[in-house]
Design brief:
This protein is mainly β. It has a single domain, classed as Fumarylacetoacetase-like, C-terminal domain (Fumarylacetoacetate hydrolase, domain 2, Alpha-Beta Complex), CATH 3.90.850.10. Helices cover 7% and strands 38% of the residues. The strands form four sheets. Strands 1, 2, 3, 4, 5, 6, 7, 8, 11, 12, 13 and 16 form a twelve-stranded mixed β-sheet that branches. The protein is globular and about 45 Å long. This is 4-hydroxyphenylacetate isomerase. InterPro entries: FAH, Fumarylacetoacetase-like_C, Fumarylacetoacetase_C_sf, HPA_isomer/decarb_N. One of its GO terms (molecular function) is 5-carboxymethyl-2-hydroxymuconate delta-isomerase activity. Pfam families: FAA_hydrolase.
C-alpha cells in the first residue's frame, strides 16, 4: 500500500495518505479515487527531457548528424513546462482551434526533495522525494532544435498526478508505462529503455543547474507517442505509481480551463 502526497482542488495544503487499489485512505476515511477533485501535487518548476528513450533517439536516424549540431546529443536536452500548462487529474486537456490532434507524452516525473547541485550519480536518489505521473502534451511537430513553446506550452498541456508516491520501494529504472485512449492500449514501454537512468539524469542536469525542492524532472517520453483528438479519454498508467486520466476537449468549449 504506497504512501502518497496529494492536494485537493481549491486547497493550498498538501496531505499524506495511502492508496489501496482504487481507493485513497486519508484522515481515517476511504475515498474512491475517481470521485475526488484533484489538484496537481507539485509546487516547483517542471523540466522536460527530450530524446532520453533509446527508441526515440533511434527514430531520429541519420538526422542526428545534420546541422546545426552534426552529432547525437551529448547532454540532456531540457525544456520547461510553465505554470499555465499545469493541471490535475480529471481536468480537461484543451485542443487548440488550430490543431486536429495532440501527442500524449507519458512521462515519469521525478519530484525533488531537497536542493540539488553537482550531485553525484551514486547519491542522486537521496535528493528524490518521490515520483508522479505527467502527461507531457504536445502539438505534433518535427523540429527538435528550436524551443517548441507554441507546441508544448499551451494552457492545460501538462496534467500531473494524481499524487506523489514516496520513493521507498520504487525502482524508477524498471517501471512499465502504458497509455490507453478510450480504454484501448495505444503505447507500452518501460523506463528500463532510458538512455540516462534516473540517477544519471539528475547528476548530469545538476552539473550546470540547481534543482530545488518541489521541482519535477521528467525522464522523457517514449517513441511513437499516441495521438488523441477531441472527446478522447486518455489514461496513463505507470507501474507502482498509479494512473492519470484526462479528457481532450475542444478549446472553444472551455472558459478558463473549465468545460461549459
Amino acid at each position: 500500500m504506497p504512501k502518497v502526497t496529494f492536494k485537493f482542488q481549491g486547497s493550498q495544503l498538501f496531505h499524506d495518505g495511502e492508496v489501496r487499489e482504487n481507493t485513497l485512505h486519508y484522515n481515517s476515511e476511504t475515498y474512491e479515487i475517481g470521485k475526488l477533485l484533484w489538484d496537481a501535487p507539485v509546487s516547483g518548476t517542471i523540466y522536460g527531457t527530450l530524446l532520453n528513450y533509446k527508441g526515440a533517439l533511434e527514430q531520429m536516424g541519420d538526422s542526428v548528424h545534420d546541422a546545426p549540431y552534426n552529432k547525437p546529443p551529448e547532454a540532456p536536452i531540457l525544456y520547461i513546462k510553465p505554470i499555465n500548462t499545469i493541471t490535475g487529474y480529471g481536468m480537461p486537456i484543451p485542443l487548440p482551434l488550430d490543431s486536429k490532434e495532440l501527442e500524449i507524452g507519458a512521462a515519469l516525473g521525478i519530484v525533488i526533495g531537497r536542493s540539488a547541485t553537482h550531485v553525484s550519480e551514486s547519491k542522486a536518489l537521496e535528493y528524490v522525494e518521490g515520483y508522479t505521473i505527467v502527461n507531457d502534451v504536445t502539438i505534433p511537430h518535427e523540429s527538435f532544435y528550436r524551443p517548441a513553446v507554441k507546441h508544448k506550452a499551451r494552457d492545460g498541456f501538462c496534467p500531473v498526478g494524481p499524487w506523489i508516491v514516496v520513493k521507498e520501494g520504487i525502482n524508477p529504472d524498471s517501471l512499465r508505462i502504458k497509455v490507453f485512449i478510450n480504454d484501448e492500449l495505444k503505447q507500452e514501454n518501460t523506463t528500463a529503455n532510458l538512455i540516462r537512468s534516473v540517477s544519471k539524469l539528475i547528476a548530469e542536469v545538476t552539473e550546470f543547474m540547481t534543482l530545488s525542492k518541489g521541482d519535477v524532472l521528467l525522464v522523457g517520453v517514449p517513441e511513437n507517442p499516441p495521438k488523441a483528438k477531441a472527446g478522447d479519454r486518455v489514461r496513463i498508467e505507470i507501474e507502482g505509481i498509479g494512473s492519470l486520466e484526462n479528457v481532450v476537449v475542444d478549446e472553444k468549449e472551455l472558459v478558463a480551463g473549465v468545460r461549459l
